[in-house]
Amino acid sequence: xxxxxxxxxxxxxxxxxxxxxxxxxxxxxxxxxxxxxxxxxxxxxxxxxxxxxxxxxxxxxxxxxxxxxxxxxxxxxxxxxxxxxxxxxxxxxxxxxxxxxxxxxxxxxxxxxxxxxxxxxxxxxxxxxxxxxxxxxxxxxxxxxxxxxxxxxxxxxxxxxxxxxxxxxxxxxxxxxxxxxxxxxxxxxxxxxxxxxxxxxxxxxxxxxxxxxxxxxxxxxxxxxxxxxxxxxxxxxxxxxxxxxxxxxxxxxxxxxxxxxxxxxxxxxxxxxxxxxxxxxxxxxxxxxxxxxxxxxxxxxxxxxxxxxxxxxxxxxxxxxxxxxxxxxxxxxxx
Length: 335
Hints:
Blueprint: H1 3-32, H2 34-37, H3 56-59, H4 61-71, E1 84-90, H5 92-95, H6 105-114, E2 119-125, H7 131-142, E3 149-153, H8 169-181, H9 204-220, H10 222-234, E4 240-244, H11 253-268, E5 273-275, H12 292-299, H13 310-326
Parallel strand pairs: 1-2, 1-3, 3-4, 4-5
Helix pairs in contact: 6-13, 8-10, 10-11
């Protein structure tokens, strides 16, 4: 081996070792120090500066559908004409806060269903979206597309209307009617970081507690309950699943009360409900469901990041895959 060959070999080995070191350090940071290196910092994990708007250049496929809907661009194209169309509408759980794009349950579900028949899943979600936003996105969607199936993903801050997007007339009317019905109770809205810059300096646990406090306040506010009920009454019954993925998060009595309120409204208006507890006794996921605390530890991203992790998203995909491929009600399989 001549001198030049030796130098090339040493350079190659050095670069390879540097690459392995980088991958190892990244793995350690990702696995054990997520809160320090990725939490609220990484675009790869779906985080963004919430004082700014999301962009297609930053988030690509993750943001494509919601940005198309908001801008009035086509969501479906000619290539989707022969596909079974599913729209998943939700908030940060559908957006995939804290996980990579390919770990989101919508992506996993689409790939699995495509093994049976051509399937296109539209994901309409942003962090902090509420029941009002779900309804607004639904109204905008059906003006340009006719999904075969709608999946509304419902979580514990849905009673908190936000104001990222202008309210459509239908939602304006609901809020106005409820405020008129309960004039002594001002609508509790989502905690807004842009109006409270000091929130950026708060500890992550303090931020979570602040959100929880506002959410619990909304749950007890008759104006918010009115908005939630009236909105749920307007959401579709046909070809619609109402998926509640966070029952195992309901450790405190207050949060359990919130979900009981939610489910009572869904049942009152005869919505088709599925909860993640469906997998509590399954062979694949049952071991993670020993009790509420163990389930929370197993299915959330990290100590600070309380959003569902990759395992939870895999479970959600399994629940919905099983429902869609075994229940003739949805028209995915032949009766």
